[in-house]
Amino acid sequence: MSQFRDKPSWEPYVRKIDAVEDANGQLFVHLTWHSGDHERVDSATAHSKFPNLLLKYYEGYLRFSDS
């Protein structure tokens, strides 16, 4: 969403991260805005604009073993 591009953080405007995609060695993050719109951004943008949401997304996929 262009109105958020200059904001230091997008976290208040992002509803959720839908997926992380590897496209020929480059990571992209698919997200849903609170407006319901969907967008794909590069991982560097995700790291700088919504790092806490990205961390929570990855934490949701962590699995620990007893070994």
Description:
The structure is a single chain. By secondary structure, the chain is α+β, with helices and mostly antiparallel strands. The protein has a 3-stranded antiparallel sheet with strand order 1-2-3. A hairpin with a 4-residue loop joins strand 2 and strand 3. The chain is globular, with a radius of gyration of 13 Å. The model has no long low-confidence stretch (mean pLDDT 94). It is found in: Nucleus. Keywords: Nucleus.
Brief digest:
This protein is of the alpha+beta class and 67 residues long.
β-strand percent reads: 25-35%
Biggest sheet: strands, sense, closure?
3 strands, antiparallel
* Topology pattern, helix = H, strand = E: EEEHH
Give the % helix: 10-25%
Q: Calculate the mean pLDDT score and round it.
A: 94
Pfam family, one: Chromo_shadow
Domain Chromo shadow: 2-67
Keywords: Nucleus
Main location: nucleus
List keywords for this structure.
Chromo_shadow_dom; 24% helix; globular; 67 residues; three-stranded antiparallel sheet; 34% strand; 2 helices
